[in-house]
Amino acid sequence: MRIHSLFAAVALGAALAACSPANPVLDIEGGRIQGVKSIAKGVYIYKGIPFAAPPVGELRWQEPQPVVPWEGVKVADTFGPGAYQAPHDSSNPWTSEFYWEDPEFSEDCLYLNVWTPAPGKPEKKLPVAMWIHGGAYTGGWGYEPEFDGKVWAQKGVVLVTVNYRLGVFGFLNHPLLAQESPHGVSGNYGILDQIAALKWIHANIAAFGGDPENITIFGQSAGAGSVKTLVSSPLTDGLIQKAIIQSGGGVTVRPAGAPTQPTVSPMTLLGEAWKAVFDWAGYDTLEKMRAASTEEVFGLAARYAAETGVRTRLATSPVVDGYVSTESFDAAATEGRIKDIPYMIGYTRDDMGDAEAGIRRFCELRNAAGKPVYAYQFAHALPDDEAGSHDMKGAFHSSELWYMFKSLDRGDRPFTQADWALAEHVVSCWTNFAKTGDPGEGWKAYSPEDPDFMVFDLNADGTADASAMGAPLKRN
């Protein structure tokens, strides 16, 4: 009897704790939800919240639709599937760094995750940041090992990470889809997913203690490209208060006299190319296209190339469609038509391509408009083991992610206390910017009088020093 009574008391205590004011049940779009405690004191995580209906069946290649309601209280303790994509193996150099354990991949992928220190406290009005993962618009997910939001929440920012449709499911251009669309366009479904997530945040984030009028969007690589598309889109007016562009370039610096626009719409060219592939496979109607299996659609382009020998560039990335995107980021930034908000922009020292010139051009354009921009270079070479076993070396593309989330404990590199100090400096800058539009930490806005970048690095002796980390990158 005593044992039974003890078990009953423990069960009752657990039930009461689950419903405690510290972890309240929240009312959001779709139903009631409850988070789980993080290992960080006072931080709660809400995993796998649906922000739109599953884009499957008849909703494949449609704009995201409203959330399907659920019954009872959803305990948000499990991340949702990542967008359908190829499994990661050793052919991808980032696999050992970030992709060493793939989650489930599915077309049913429109889920987001929230880290917050103030669930059920709308009066807190904490700043909100929405993270958009990279991966060339074909890979990645919103809860990769490096994307840990607990430190952001500890610093008073509600962090939201999102999934969005990728590859052929997220960015298919096809004339039949354009004919079906009330806007006469196709192809930007992944961006529409991101916009749906932004709208969800506006409508629901107050329940998590966030301020729907203080939202920062930030992303890296393809995520940075997404940010550039979002700040140029008329569909996001009023939804974004600050933006961070990481390793996504700036404004393209073109040689004098070079054409800035193609003579034929990329959307038209892509649509005809994709139509040829689908027609070849016998999918010549929307009904047949949507009835095809996930695996068949995903592998269609590769099979077409292998069996026909025809090599067609079948891009799956955002396009200027006249609806989601009415002009390129370059054109919008040059003409002053991007969102008139504070920006941070930067790159890693060993990034892909020459990023600095385009970033400087972006800074100069914003300065001419009287608006501040904070530019940076992440220059710290990540530590490796004695065998040098990591595929990625130096301050490689994506290397800053461990530091801006201060998630070094999730990696397998021999990080030192100096690395942790650098991570504290980086994450403080990012969260300060999300709060006020100024990263602080001695970081000055780029200006004609002071055209230098904040450089994130360590001293020569391996110690972390704020003045060294803030040393300027001089103009080339």
Mean pLDDT equals 90
- Radius of gyration, whole Å: 23 Å
CATH class of one domain: Alpha Beta
Give the CATH architecture of one domain. 3-Layer(aba) Sandwich
Bin the helical content: 25-40%
Determine the number of helices (DSSP H or I, runs of at least 4 residues).
15
State the CATH topology of one domain. Answer: Rossmann fold
Structural class of the helices, strands and pairings? alpha/beta
| Record field, number of beta strands | 16
Shape: globular
CATH superfamily of one domain: Alpha/Beta hydrolase fold, catalytic domain
Biggest beta sheet attributes: 11 strands, mixed
In spatial order, strands of the major sheet run: 3-4-8-10-9-11-12-13-14-15-16
Strand content: 15-25%
Describe this protein's structure:
It is a single chain. The chain has 476 residues and is α/β, with parallel strands linked by helices. It has a domain at 18-256 and 321-341: 3-Layer(aba) Sandwich (Rossmann fold), CATH 3.40.50. The protein contains 15 helices and 16 strands. The chain has helices spanning 2-18, 150-154, 167-170, 175-180, 189-204, 222-232, 266-280, 286-291, 294-298, 300-308, 329-334, 356-368, 401-404, 417-436, 466-469; strands at residues 26-28, 31-34, 36-37, 44-50, 73-75, 82-83, 105-106, 111-116, 126-132, 158-162, 210-220, 242-246, 343-348, 373-378, 453-456, 472-473. Strands 3-4-8-10-9-11-12-13-14-15-16 form an eleven-stranded mixed sheet, with helices on both faces. Strands 1-2-5 form a three-stranded mixed sheet, with no helix packed on it. β3 and β4 (44-50) form a beta hairpin. The radius of gyration is 23 Å and the shape is globular. Residues 1-19 and 467-476 have low confidence and may be disordered.
